[in-house]
């Protein structure tokens, strides 16, 4: 299995990015990582990797898209950037997956420019795995599509359900639509039209209707459908709350357990390991013909290593094949909605 990694993407690239590639290659003997970026900056981090070097290739490119650059402008002005080169490898079938902690907008735009979509996909969406009291749920979109149409959200529900079934191992995934209330008549036209689509589909038995933001971590459903604007805000708020809770809990525990600080530290470490995004890897861009994982800009080597392993897992699970099959069975309904 071959995975292209944007070695120049991230707040502290290329050091932790390359270190993550080394960890992933060591953990998975069937994986070859193609490090895409400035060879002169990458090679110093590969000096002491021993036999792993044979499975850590370098594709040299001369340009990098900064985190604060306009995605569309940067992609046009910097044709030899590491993000575009990753997408090129995927389009040419030279890799099975791509991973980047770089500019999220550029990653999404790079895929959209190539139109590298799965059959029947109208608009890919970024999916994020969220912790709940019942395990995990998936929320999408969280940033790729801030002005979706009802058929886009409907497809997100279908793709999310496939992800929940084959990756999260939810036998009969439940789908919820993010709204300002649970009543069917709540929300704007987008929410109402999307609700109607689900109600007409063969997913109607899996669709539980509208949910509110507080329902996410309660685990009332396995797939949360929303537009990219709301989804991204929800994701960032949840991350901030988690960080806040961990810091406050740490202070309280350390202050209370004077003679048992080690137990408190173990408890906190277990919580972080279970819910921290570094452990979950990155967020897949679902609907792409290939596997694309988008990571936090501040991703550590551990997060990058996990993201690479997650990418390999998605390839092995034949995630995209299942998505194509499900979308084909609902193509007529989506076409009817688009025509209307």
What structural class should be given to the helix and strand makeup?
alpha/beta
Beta-strand content bin: 15-25%
- CATH homologous superfamily annotation of the largest domain: Isopropylmalate Dehydrogenase
Percent range of helical residues: 40-55%
- Name of the level-1 CATH class of the largest domain: Alpha Beta
Tell me the total number of β-strands.
11
Overall structural domain count: 2
Order of helices and strands: EHEHEHHEHEEHEHEEHHHEEHHH
The CATH architecture term of the largest domain is: 3-Layer(aba) Sandwich
CATH topology heading of the largest domain: Isopropylmalate Dehydrogenase
Q: What summary fits the major beta sheet? A: 11 strands, mixed
Average pLDDT, rounded to a whole number, is 89
Low-pLDDT ranges: none
User: Biggest sheet: strands side by side, in what order?
Assistant: 3-2-1-4-11-10-5-6-9-7-8
Radius of gyration computed on alpha carbons: 20 Å
Report the end-to-end length measured between terminal Cα atoms. Answer: 43 Å
How would the global form be characterised?
Answer: globular
| Number of helical elements | 13
């Amino acid at each position: 299995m071959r995975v292209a990694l944007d070695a120049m993407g991230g707040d502290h690239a290329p050091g932790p990015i390359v270190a993550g590639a080394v960890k992933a290659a060591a953990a998975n003997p069937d994986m070859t990582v193609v490090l895409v970026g400035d060879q002169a900056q990458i090679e110093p981090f590969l000096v002491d990797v021993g036999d792993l070097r044979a499975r850590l290739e370098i594709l040299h490119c001369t340009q990098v898209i900064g985190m604060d650059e306009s995605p569309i402008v940067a992609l046009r002005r910097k044709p030899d950037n590491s993000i575009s080169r990753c997408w090129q490898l995927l389009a040419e079938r030279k890799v099975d997956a791509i991973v980047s902690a770089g500019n999220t907008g550029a990653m999404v735009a790079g895929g959209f420019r190539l139109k590298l979509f799965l059959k029947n996909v109208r608009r890919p969406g970024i999916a994020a795995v969220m912790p709940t009291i019942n395990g995990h749920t998936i929320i999408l979109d969280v940033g790729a599509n801030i002005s979706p149409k009802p058929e886009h959200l409907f497809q997100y529900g279908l793709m999310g359900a496939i992800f929940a079934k084959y990756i999260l191992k939810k036998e009969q995934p439940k789908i919820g639509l993010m709204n300002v209330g649970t009543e069917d008549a709540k929300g704007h036209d987008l929410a109402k039209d999307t609700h109607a689509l689900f109600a007409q589909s063969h997913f109607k038995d899996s669709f539980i209707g509208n949910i509110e933001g507080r329902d996410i971590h309660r685990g009332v459903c396995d797939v949360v459908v929303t537009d990219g604007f709301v989804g991204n805000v929800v994701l960032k708020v949840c991350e901030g709350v988690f960080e806040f809770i961990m810091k406050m809990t740490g202070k309280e525990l350390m202050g209370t357990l004077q003679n048992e600080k080690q137990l408190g530290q173990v408890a906190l470490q277990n919580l972080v390991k279970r819910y921290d995004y570094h452990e979950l890897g990155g967020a897949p861009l679902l609907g792409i013909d290939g596997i694309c994982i988008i990571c936090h800009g501040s991703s550590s080597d551990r997060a990058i290593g996990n993201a690479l392993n997650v990418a390999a897992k998605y390839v092995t699970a034949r995630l995209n094949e299942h998505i194509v099959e499900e979308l084909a069975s609902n193509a007529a309904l989506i076409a009817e909605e688009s025509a209307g």
